[in-house]
Fold this sequence. Notes:
Layout: E1 2-4, H1 24-27, H2 35-38, H3 43-75, H4 82-107, H5 125-134, H6 136-170, H7 172-175, H8 178-183, E2 188-192, E3 197-200, H9 203-239, H10 243-294, H11 299-327, H12 330-335, H13 337-346, E4 352-357, H14 364-385, E5 390-397, E6 400-407, H15 420-429, E7 434-438, E8 445-452
Parallel strand pairs: 1-7, 4-5
Antiparallel strand pairs: 2-3, 5-6, 6-8, 7-8
Amino acid sequence: MATEYGQGYGPHSGAGHRGTGWDAGAAGGGHRLPAGLRAPFEARSLREFGYVLLGLPIGIALFTYAVTMVSLGAGLLVTFLGVPVLAAALAGCRGLGALERARARGLLGLRVAEPQPLRMRKPGPMAWMGAVLKSGTSWRALLYAVLQFPWAVFSFTVAVTFWTLGWGLLTYPLWFWVFPAYAGEGGIQLYGDEHHRIYLDNPFEITTTALVGLLFTLASPWIVRALTTVDRLMVHGLLGPSRLSARVVELESDRGVVVDTAAADLRRIERDLHDGAQARLVNLAMGLGLAKEKLTEDPRAAARMVDEAHGEVKTALRELRDLARGIHPAVLTDRGLDAALSAVASRCTVPVQVEVDLAERPAPAIEGIAYFTVSELLQNISKHSGATSATVDVWRSDDRLMLQVVDDGAGGADVTKGSGLAGLTERLDAVDGILLVDSPAGGPTRVTAELPWRG
């Protein structure tokens, strides 16, 4: 996952500070009235009120359909018709759930992902019925259809009561004349018996009534918003993908990334061997063969060929050593991240300060990913940043291994442009890691990686 990263996130600030809060000044910018006074007239409040109003008739339809169909299917289970009727009932609930997700998206702005589709091993009506009956999504949609109705009755009653009471009392000065003109009474009656009657009919009482109505009117949008919060939770929890299925999809995607990355690494190793050490060893064998033939005829020429072959051997050994270091450096296995990252930093074209604050070593797999992440970032600094200095910080925060690489280069790094950062993001995603990039134009560039500790 790639996200812009704030400047305050460092080895001494803790992993929990992500800068996810709203800017209070920005949130209210451009409005002369405070949010409490604007709420009754905002489009969001009207959409939420409309959602609650529609919830009652839709809830009645959902509840009636669900109870009728499930009861019919359960009653027919003694015959062969019960299973298909019950499957049809659950399939209908799934379809109605899709409509409810669309209603929540349109009126509440709630975007809920589609649940996992039915998985059938083979096509056919029996396989379809079995998949519907075994699907947790189907039963959660049925549960939503049953629970939404009583909640819709409650929220409809509360919302309509507050809205009508608030606006009715607020506008009372405009229509109180109806009582003396047509009803023969002074106004709204608060109390009445055989001897006394109290009406809201004088200017003070009328003004007080309007002020009370104003309070109800201002409070109504927030009450409706609280009611729709429960609707949001129900739609998200019952009509969206379950945590388990979402996690399965995520793991399947991560597994594909891991397989693709491993295949790419194998292709790179094969290419490096074919174009580098293997080619040199072939030339070495040919050179030694020629030297053997000239050994008796021209010893000096043979000695010169052997000397050239000796140089080729040294070059091939260096390339093989670099290739082995690229697969998994021995210094990382023997001495850990501190020594391995210091060795990588020494080969960078800009001065790099390395600080590793770890009391113990993480799991070898996590340690290897951390090493290659820092190596890739330092290579980017050498090739593209134009920086004059860089720093590498490694520390542990709770159960996370934190890496931060900062350079004073030109900035402008972007994970969305298909660069090496995109590959790093996928590699870290595969182990539940996170890559955070902050690289404004003109620099500096700050890249932070989080990895699970798994010690």
